[in-house]
């Protein structure tokens, strides 16, 4: 379980750095500057709890699986943002003042990105099963 948590945390960091790097390119930064927060490592590591959900939804259509992941990721993003706000006094990814933000913790316009991210983590889970870093009951 620890290995998978670390792998999901690292994968999330990588995806976020690519996402923010591409976002910087759209703003004219040809250096492709990307970034993340240390806090995001354990938050992305929580994807380990999606494994049993993935196993239950494996045969469902991709649009439904992606939709479920989107809702779950929004819930985790909101809750962890709120928890960090309470714990350290700030949410590192404060979306306040941006369109479609809910209390500065989530941005609804990121739904397509979370849809894809959920499916990427689903593929990562399948890869981990194939290299025997996880157990599954199908």
UniProtKB/TrEMBL annotation:
<feature type="transmembrane region" description="Helical">
    <location>
        <begin position="62"/>
        <end position="84"/>
    </location>
</feature>
<dbReference type="Pfam" id="PF06541">
    <property type="entry name" value="ABC_trans_CmpB"/>
</dbReference>
<protein>
    <recommendedName>
        <fullName>ABC transporter permease</fullName>
    </recommendedName>
</protein>
<keyword id="KW-0812">Transmembrane</keyword>
<dbReference type="InterPro" id="IPR010540">
    <property type="entry name" value="CmpB_TMEM229"/>
</dbReference>
<keyword id="KW-0472">Membrane</keyword>
<feature type="transmembrane region" description="Helical">
    <location>
        <begin position="5"/>
        <end position="24"/>
    </location>
</feature>
<keyword id="KW-1133">Transmembrane helix</keyword>
<feature type="transmembrane region" description="Helical">
    <location>
        <begin position="104"/>
        <end position="121"/>
    </location>
</feature>
<dbReference type="GO" id="GO:0016020">
    <property type="term" value="C:membrane"/>
</dbReference>
<feature type="transmembrane region" description="Helical">
    <location>
        <begin position="30"/>
        <end position="50"/>
    </location>
</feature>
């Amino acid at each position: 379980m620890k290995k998978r948590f670390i792998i999901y945390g690292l994968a999330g960091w990588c995806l976020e750095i690519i996402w923010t790097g591409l976002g910087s390119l759209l703003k004219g930064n040809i250096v492709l500057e990307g970034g993340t927060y240390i806090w995001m490592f354990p938050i992305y590591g929580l994807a380990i709890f999606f494994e049993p959900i993935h196993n239950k939804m494996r045969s469902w259509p991709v649009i439904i699986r992606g939709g479920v992941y989107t809702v779950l990721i929004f819930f985790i993003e909101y809750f962890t943002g709120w928890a960090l706000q309470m714990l350290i006094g700030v949410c590192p990814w404060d979306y306040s003042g941006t369109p479609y933000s809910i209390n500065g913790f989530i941005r609804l316009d990121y739904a397509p990105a979370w849809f894809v991210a959920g499916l990427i983590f689903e593929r990562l889970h399948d890869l981990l099963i194939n290299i025997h870093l996880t157990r599954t009951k199908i």
